[in-house]
Design goal:
Number of strands: 8
Number of helices: 5
Shape: elongated
Protein backbone atom coordinates (compact mmCIF):
# COMPACT_ATOMS: atom_id res chain seq x y z
CA UNK A 1 0.00 0.00 0.00
CA UNK A 2 2.86 2.38 0.82
CA UNK A 3 4.62 1.66 -2.48
CA UNK A 4 1.39 2.35 -4.36
CA UNK A 5 1.05 5.74 -2.73
CA UNK A 6 4.65 6.67 -3.67
CA UNK A 7 4.10 5.64 -7.27
CA UNK A 8 0.89 7.66 -7.41
CA UNK A 9 2.61 10.79 -5.97
CA UNK A 10 5.40 10.78 -8.63
CA UNK A 11 3.09 10.50 -11.66
CA UNK A 12 4.33 12.63 -14.63
CA UNK A 13 2.45 14.90 -17.07
CA UNK A 14 0.13 13.37 -19.54
CA UNK A 15 0.55 13.93 -23.28
CA UNK A 16 -2.46 16.24 -23.36
CA UNK A 17 -1.02 18.41 -20.58
CA UNK A 18 2.29 18.68 -22.40
CA UNK A 19 0.57 19.66 -25.65
CA UNK A 20 -1.55 22.30 -23.87
CA UNK A 21 1.56 23.75 -22.22
CA UNK A 22 3.43 23.84 -25.53
CA UNK A 23 0.46 25.52 -27.20
CA UNK A 24 0.31 28.21 -24.52
CA UNK A 25 4.06 28.81 -24.81
CA UNK A 26 3.84 29.03 -28.60
CA UNK A 27 0.96 31.53 -28.34
CA UNK A 28 2.91 33.64 -25.86
CA UNK A 29 5.97 33.58 -28.14
CA UNK A 30 3.82 34.63 -31.13
CA UNK A 31 2.26 37.51 -29.21
CA UNK A 32 5.69 38.62 -27.99
CA UNK A 33 7.09 38.52 -31.55
CA UNK A 34 4.16 40.50 -32.88
CA UNK A 35 4.72 43.11 -30.18
CA UNK A 36 8.44 43.36 -30.98
CA UNK A 37 7.71 43.52 -34.71
CA UNK A 38 5.14 46.28 -34.15
CA UNK A 39 7.63 48.25 -32.07
CA UNK A 40 10.29 47.84 -34.76
CA UNK A 41 7.92 49.01 -37.48
CA UNK A 42 6.87 52.00 -35.39
CA UNK A 43 10.49 52.93 -34.74
CA UNK A 44 11.29 52.63 -38.44
CA UNK A 45 8.31 54.80 -39.40
CA UNK A 46 9.34 57.39 -36.81
CA UNK A 47 12.90 57.36 -38.11
CA UNK A 48 11.76 57.86 -41.72
CA UNK A 49 9.44 60.68 -40.66
CA UNK A 50 12.22 62.37 -38.70
CA UNK A 51 14.70 61.97 -41.56
CA UNK A 52 12.22 63.47 -44.05
CA UNK A 53 11.48 66.44 -41.80
CA UNK A 54 15.17 67.09 -41.11
CA UNK A 55 16.02 66.82 -44.82
CA UNK A 56 13.28 69.30 -45.72
CA UNK A 57 14.36 71.68 -42.94
CA UNK A 58 17.96 71.49 -44.17
CA UNK A 59 16.83 72.14 -47.75
CA UNK A 60 14.76 75.17 -46.78
CA UNK A 61 17.64 76.42 -44.65
CA UNK A 62 19.90 76.16 -47.69
CA UNK A 63 17.27 77.99 -49.76
CA UNK A 64 17.37 80.93 -47.35
CA UNK A 65 21.16 80.81 -47.10
CA UNK A 66 21.51 81.00 -50.89
CA UNK A 67 19.26 84.06 -51.02
CA UNK A 68 20.92 85.70 -48.00
CA UNK A 69 24.32 85.36 -49.70
CA UNK A 70 23.10 86.62 -53.09
CA UNK A 71 25.78 88.66 -54.83
CA UNK A 72 24.96 92.35 -55.35
CA UNK A 73 26.79 93.34 -58.50
CA UNK A 74 28.26 96.85 -58.61
CA UNK A 75 26.45 99.40 -60.74
CA UNK A 76 27.79 99.70 -64.32
CA UNK A 77 30.46 102.34 -64.75
CA UNK A 78 29.59 105.32 -67.00
CA UNK A 79 31.04 105.13 -70.49
CA UNK A 80 32.91 107.92 -72.26
CA UNK A 81 29.58 109.14 -73.62
CA UNK A 82 28.13 109.39 -70.11
CA UNK A 83 25.75 106.43 -70.48
CA UNK A 84 25.78 103.28 -68.35
CA UNK A 85 25.04 99.67 -69.03
CA UNK A 86 21.63 98.12 -68.49
CA UNK A 87 20.64 98.03 -64.81
CA UNK A 88 18.28 95.13 -65.48
CA UNK A 89 21.18 93.05 -66.81
CA UNK A 90 22.95 93.69 -63.49
CA UNK A 91 20.19 92.17 -61.37
CA UNK A 92 19.65 89.39 -63.89
CA UNK A 93 23.21 88.27 -63.22
CA UNK A 94 22.34 87.87 -59.55
CA UNK A 95 18.86 86.36 -59.80
CA UNK A 96 17.04 84.81 -62.74
CA UNK A 97 13.70 82.96 -62.75
CA UNK A 98 12.21 81.56 -65.96
CA UNK A 99 9.17 79.86 -64.46
CA UNK A 100 10.86 76.51 -63.81
CA UNK A 101 14.43 77.21 -62.70
CA UNK A 102 15.82 79.81 -60.31
CA UNK A 103 19.48 80.77 -60.73
CA UNK A 104 21.38 82.72 -58.07
CA UNK A 105 24.88 84.13 -57.98
CA UNK A 106 25.97 83.98 -54.36
CA UNK A 107 29.08 84.64 -52.34
CA UNK A 108 31.04 81.47 -51.67
CA UNK A 109 31.26 82.05 -47.92
CA UNK A 110 33.38 79.53 -46.09
CA UNK A 111 35.17 78.32 -49.21
CA UNK A 112 38.93 78.60 -49.38
CA UNK A 113 39.80 81.68 -51.37
CA UNK A 114 36.24 83.03 -51.30
CA UNK A 115 34.86 83.95 -54.69
CA UNK A 116 31.39 83.21 -56.00
CA UNK A 117 29.15 80.24 -56.63
CA UNK A 118 26.24 79.82 -59.01
CA UNK A 119 23.36 77.82 -57.55
CA UNK A 120 20.15 76.73 -59.21
CA UNK A 121 16.87 75.25 -58.02
CA UNK A 122 14.42 73.35 -60.19
CA UNK A 123 11.87 70.54 -60.21
CA UNK A 124 12.47 67.44 -62.32
CA UNK A 125 9.30 66.87 -64.32
CA UNK A 126 9.53 63.07 -64.52
CA UNK A 127 10.20 62.14 -60.90
CA UNK A 128 8.91 65.35 -59.32
CA UNK A 129 12.14 65.78 -57.35
CA UNK A 130 12.91 69.30 -56.16
CA UNK A 131 16.64 69.73 -56.74
CA UNK A 132 19.47 72.11 -55.93
CA UNK A 133 22.56 72.50 -58.11
CA UNK A 134 25.75 74.35 -57.25
CA UNK A 135 28.93 75.18 -59.10
CA UNK A 136 32.45 74.94 -57.70
CA UNK A 137 33.92 78.20 -56.31
CA UNK A 138 34.47 80.74 -59.08
CA UNK A 139 37.26 83.31 -59.23
CA UNK A 140 36.93 84.93 -62.67
CA UNK A 141 34.16 86.41 -64.78
CA UNK A 142 34.82 83.75 -67.42
CA UNK A 143 34.30 80.84 -65.02
CA UNK A 144 31.21 82.59 -63.61
CA UNK A 145 29.75 82.96 -67.12
CA UNK A 146 30.37 79.27 -67.83
CA UNK A 147 28.72 78.29 -64.53
CA UNK A 148 25.75 80.62 -65.16
CA UNK A 149 25.17 79.02 -68.55
CA UNK A 150 25.78 75.56 -67.09
CA UNK A 151 23.08 76.18 -64.48
CA UNK A 152 20.65 77.12 -67.26
CA UNK A 153 21.42 73.89 -69.14
CA UNK A 154 21.03 71.87 -65.96
CA UNK A 155 17.66 73.52 -65.34
CA UNK A 156 16.46 72.34 -68.74
CA UNK A 157 17.55 68.73 -68.29
CA UNK A 158 18.00 68.41 -64.47
CA UNK A 159 21.10 66.39 -65.30
CA UNK A 160 24.75 66.93 -64.41
CA UNK A 161 25.77 65.78 -67.88
CA UNK A 162 27.70 68.55 -69.59
CA UNK A 163 27.69 70.80 -66.50
CA UNK A 164 30.62 72.82 -65.28
CA UNK A 165 33.68 70.71 -64.57
CA UNK A 166 35.53 70.77 -61.28
CA UNK A 167 32.91 69.92 -58.69
CA UNK A 168 29.37 70.83 -59.76
CA UNK A 169 26.90 68.84 -57.69
CA UNK A 170 23.17 68.41 -57.22
CA UNK A 171 21.12 67.50 -54.17
CA UNK A 172 17.60 66.11 -53.92
CA UNK A 173 15.65 68.14 -51.36
CA UNK A 174 12.10 66.77 -51.56
CA UNK A 175 9.42 65.49 -53.92
CA UNK A 176 7.03 68.14 -55.19
CA UNK A 177 3.99 68.30 -57.45
CA UNK A 178 4.72 71.90 -58.48
CA UNK A 179 6.38 75.12 -57.34
CA UNK A 180 6.10 78.84 -58.07
CA UNK A 181 7.74 82.09 -56.97
CA UNK A 182 6.42 85.57 -56.25
CA UNK A 183 8.59 88.67 -55.74
CA UNK A 184 7.84 91.40 -53.21
CA UNK A 185 8.29 94.79 -54.88
CA UNK A 186 6.64 98.14 -54.30
CA UNK A 187 4.84 96.71 -51.24
CA UNK A 188 3.10 93.99 -53.24
CA UNK A 189 3.60 90.33 -54.12
CA UNK A 190 3.67 89.86 -57.88
CA UNK A 191 4.53 87.18 -60.40
CA UNK A 192 8.07 88.01 -61.55
CA UNK A 193 7.34 86.84 -65.08
CA UNK A 194 4.29 89.05 -65.45
CA UNK A 195 6.22 91.99 -64.05
CA UNK A 196 8.98 91.46 -66.56
CA UNK A 197 6.52 91.22 -69.44
CA UNK A 198 4.95 94.50 -68.42
CA UNK A 199 8.35 96.20 -68.48
CA UNK A 200 8.10 97.66 -64.99
CA UNK A 201 10.96 99.63 -63.51
CA UNK A 202 11.11 97.25 -60.54
CA UNK A 203 12.83 94.66 -62.72
CA UNK A 204 16.04 96.72 -62.41
CA UNK A 205 16.39 96.03 -58.66
CA UNK A 206 16.57 92.95 -56.49
CA UNK A 207 13.22 92.08 -54.89
CA UNK A 208 12.73 92.89 -51.24
CA UNK A 209 11.34 89.41 -50.67
CA UNK A 210 10.73 86.11 -52.42
CA UNK A 211 7.79 83.83 -51.70
CA UNK A 212 8.27 80.14 -52.36
CA UNK A 213 5.02 78.28 -53.01
CA UNK A 214 5.58 74.55 -53.30
CA UNK A 215 3.21 71.58 -53.15
CA UNK A 216 4.92 68.59 -51.56
CA UNK A 217 4.01 65.17 -52.92
CA UNK A 218 2.02 62.66 -50.84
CA UNK A 219 3.88 59.85 -49.13
CA UNK A 220 6.38 62.10 -47.36
CA UNK A 221 6.53 63.25 -43.77
CA UNK A 222 5.06 66.58 -44.90
CA UNK A 223 2.72 66.82 -47.87
CA UNK A 224 0.52 69.47 -49.45
CA UNK A 225 1.00 73.21 -50.02
CA UNK A 226 3.88 74.95 -48.28
CA UNK A 227 4.65 78.68 -48.37
CA UNK A 228 8.06 80.02 -47.33
CA UNK A 229 8.82 83.75 -47.35
CA UNK A 230 12.34 85.15 -47.60
CA UNK A 231 13.03 88.81 -46.83
CA UNK A 232 16.15 90.63 -47.99
CA UNK A 233 18.39 91.12 -44.93
CA UNK A 234 18.79 94.86 -45.69
CA UNK A 235 15.09 95.46 -46.34
CA UNK A 236 13.93 98.46 -44.34
CA UNK A 237 17.44 99.82 -43.87
CA UNK A 238 21.01 98.70 -43.73
CA UNK A 239 21.77 96.28 -40.93
Amino acid sequence: MKNARIAQGTRGFTLIEVLVALSIMALMALLTWQGIDGMTRAQEATRRYTDDVLALQAGLGQWRADLDAMMVWPAPEPTSTGSTGSASSTINRSLSWNGSTLRITRLAAGDAGGGLRVVAWTRRAGSGQWLRWQSPPLQTIQTWQAAWEGAARWGETASLQGSVAGGAAETVVASALDWQLHYFRNNAWTNPLSSASEGTQTETAAPDGIRLMITLSPGQALAGPLVVDWVRPTFGGES
